[in-house]
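Exercise 3.2. Students should predict the tertiary structure of the chain below and write it as structure tokens, then compare their answer with the key that follows.

Predict this chain's 3D structure.
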Amino acid sequence: MKVNLRFVLAVSGCLLSTVLSGCATIKEAGKGFAGVSTQVLEEKRKDALKKSFALDHNGCYAKVKDILGQKDKESYIYAEDPGKKMIAIYLSREDTTPVGIFFTEETGASTLIEISSPSIYAKEEIANRIFTGIDIFLKPKVIEEKKTDGKEEIINQ
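Answer key:
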């Protein structure tokens, strides 16, 4: 029986690609090697810091990206997964500790944000940045009247 080498290579290639595309552990190993795996962030989600905000998913997502991109505290987004509703970042461009930000739509126009990381420091640092940033964004501005020398002055806080 004579075997065609091209046929054997083609079948082997198809089998290999099927195995690689269907096996999550091999996929994650490849992503881990490339430095873009989010599996550890998903595993640490059970220990995440959580807070709900009165913002819809899109508004919350946009505000978080805005906060992460601020010049003085710039974080590096290395993966986004709309299906999992998450953003994976490194703490900074110099510190590649991974942090996951997960978004869960709640009833009405409310979104739960979960911050996970294998590092407690990184998780707390990003949670503080995001939670404080959104709280400040949502806090209504107070208009205060102040009288000075018989004149009224309006101050926005």
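Discussion points: Residues 38-157 form a domain with the TATA-Binding Protein fold (CATH 3.30.310.80). The two ends are 87 Å apart (CA to CA).
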